[in-house]
């Protein structure tokens, strides 16, 4: 449960790309308020099942509950764990419980790091093997499945990720207070964005070979997005620190290659844990010539796609988490964000004269039952 | 037996009065095949990292209501809210199940004596022949 204040009246703030709108020059409880229910059924130490329902503000523009998990878990011994069904998306560290505020120090997982492919779940399965190695514990996980959700791409349009094929792995090593992780995943998109259809058809029918090839470069259907990520976490006593790095390679110019880095530092003092974080998402601007005059409507439209492919934004935040009673906390967070002024992809409904800056104040109350 | 209990209670309260606190020890089932655990083993089991005893049996940890906060302070220097937040992360990522919760020393002794893979903790003075001490925290 949370309230967010955005001081800018020229742009809307959202928690992640599944949300179509958010606060602009005022307060809103929409971004950070969610309710989840999780049921775990334990048949034996080997066999378990879990169901999770989540209600939050997302692409449905309301709080319709979604089934975020429904899986059976089989663990024949402490080394192996197999899951089948609808599982959390574990491509980035901590991404599979991104909606559980109580589990983290900051109010929310920053959009610049976690936002670019905000899958919540996969329909498929995963297999994990873990074993002590040296003084620590090593584990490897493979996952595969299909997506079934939508992203809001602005202008009241949703991009459907349904049936997009996802595969990935991660390697983990826990050593005392240290945790190291390397991961990779690939998403193969299997739908076209509705508003691209006309542009793609126009480019292909224009008679220019260059324009036809631009259409292939822009098309989302059939394109792949590969994410590589590395993380180091240190967590001992009152101190917790984490450094996360992600590199994204795509083969569509409608979603630029990029990299993101996220550093977080927190130090507990009694029931209060002050923290600070820096998140920086960068993209590589790439464009192609259509071979048509630059004033041609198709060239103008293609140019707009290249610009909107940019996800560049940096946020600096400070906050404090107060654990005032068991299983509940209160957080206050102040963020200053700066977007590349031509890149408004992490925000919604940006005015053309938005300078790319906003100050965000968040207050959140988290409960677990 | 009654005298022994009274003496034990007295000594416990004396230890507490001296400000040192109770001495917690980690206990297992005598038939677990385990003579000793090191700190890393106990961290792996209690933090859900790797839940297997060195003898090959699957391990499951048991928390004890009254001793919990001292135990985690000694094991990983973490407060209970931090431990709860840590488990929220694991539970809500579907990765592992948190320790079973026992209300008191009698319940933990009961669980451990009935389960070969159970691991618990207790004040040393309350340990009896149903369980085996495998690790103690230096005072």
Q: If strands are numbered along the chain, what order do they take across the biggest sheet of chain B?
A: 3-2-4-1-5
The largest chain-to-chain contact, stated as pair and per-chain residue counts, equals: A-B, 42 and 26 residues
Report the span from N to C terminus of chain A. Answer: 14 Å
Main beta sheet strand tally, sense and closure of chain A: 17 strands, antiparallel
Judging from the principal axes of the Cα atoms, what is the shape of chain B? Answer: globular
Tell me the fraction of residues in β-strands of chain B, as a range. Answer: 15-25%
N-to-C order of helices and strands of chain B: HEHEHHEHEE
Q: Count of DSSP helices of chain A?
A: 4
How would you characterize the overall build of this protein?
The complex is a heterodimer of chains A (369) and B (139). Chain A is mainly β. The longest helix of chain A is centred in the middle third of the chain and has 12 residues. The relative contact order of chain A is 0.15. A 5-stranded mixed β-sheet of chain B has the order 3-2-4-1-5, sandwiched between helices. The longest helix of chain B has 16 residues. By secondary structure, chain B is an alpha/beta fold. Chain B is built from 5 helices and 5 strands.
Q: Which key phrases capture this entry?
A:
heterodimer; A: 369 residues; mainly beta; 17-stranded antiparallel sheet; two-stranded antiparallel ribbon; 4 helices; 19 strands; 10% helix; B: 139 residues; alpha/beta; five-stranded mixed sheet; globular; disordered N terminus
């Amino acid at each position: 449960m949370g309230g967010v204040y955005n001081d800018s009246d020229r742009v809307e703030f959202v928690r992640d790309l599944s949300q179509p709108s958010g606060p602009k020059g005022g307060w809103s409880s929409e971004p950070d308020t969610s309710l989840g229910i999780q049921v775990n059924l334990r048949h034996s130490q080997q066999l378990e099942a879990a169901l999770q329902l989540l209600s939050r503000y997302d692409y449905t523009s309301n709080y319709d509950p979604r089934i975020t998990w429904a899986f059976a878990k089989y663990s024949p011994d402490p080394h192996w764990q197999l899951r089948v069904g609808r599982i959390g998306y574990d491509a980035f560290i901590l991404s599979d419980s991104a909606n559980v505020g109580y589990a983290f120090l900051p109010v929310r997982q920053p959009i610049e790091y976690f936002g670019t492919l905000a899958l919540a779940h996969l329909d498929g399965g995963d297999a994990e093997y873990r074993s002590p190695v040296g003084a620590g514990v090593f584990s490897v996980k493979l996952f595969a499945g299909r997506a079934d959700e939508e992203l809001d791409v602005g202008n009241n349009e949703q991009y459907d990720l349904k049936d997009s094929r996802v595969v990935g792995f991660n390697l983990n090593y826990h050593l005392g207070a240290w945790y190291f992780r390397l991961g990779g995943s690939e998403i193969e998109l299997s739908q076209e964005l509705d508003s691209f259809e006309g542009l793609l058809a126009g480019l292909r029918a224009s008679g220019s070979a260059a324009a036809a090839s631009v259409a292939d470069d822009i098309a989302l259907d059939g394109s792949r997005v590969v994410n590589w990520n590395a993380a180091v976490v240190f967590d001992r006593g009152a101190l917790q620190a984490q450094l996360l790095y992600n590199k994204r390679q795509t083969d569509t110019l409608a979603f630029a290659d990029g990299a993101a880095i996220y550093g977080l530092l927190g130090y507990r003092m009694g029931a209060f844990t002050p923290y600070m974080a820096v998140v920086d998402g960068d993209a590589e601007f790439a464009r192609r010539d259509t071979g048509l005059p630059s004033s041609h409507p198709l060239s103008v439209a293609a140019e707009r796609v290249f610009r909107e492919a940019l996800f560049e934004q940096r946020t600096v935040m400070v906050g404090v988490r107060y654990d005032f009673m068991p299983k509940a906390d209160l957080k206050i967070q102040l963020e200053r964000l700066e977007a590349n002024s031509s890149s408004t992809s992490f925000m919604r409904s940006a005015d053309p004269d938005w300078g790319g800056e906003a100050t965000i104040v968040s207050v959140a109350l988290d409960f677990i039952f | 037996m009654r005298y022994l209990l009274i003496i034990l209670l007295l000594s416990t309260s004396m230890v507490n009065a001296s400000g040192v606190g109770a001495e917690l020890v980690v206990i297992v089932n005598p038939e677990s095949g385990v003579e000793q655990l090191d700190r890393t083993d106990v961290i792996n089991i209690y933090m859900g990292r790797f839940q297997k005893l060195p003898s090959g049996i699957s391990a499951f940890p048991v928390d004890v209501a009254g001793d919990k906060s001292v135990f985690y302070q000694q094991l990983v220097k973490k407060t209970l809210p931090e431990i709860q937040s840590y488990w929220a992360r694991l539970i809500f990522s579907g990765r592992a199940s948190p320790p079973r919760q026992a209300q008191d020393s009698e319940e933990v002794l009961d669980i451990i004596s009935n389960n070969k893979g159970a691991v618990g903790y207790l004040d040393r003075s309350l340990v009896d022949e149903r369980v085996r001490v495998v690790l103690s925290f230096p005072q």
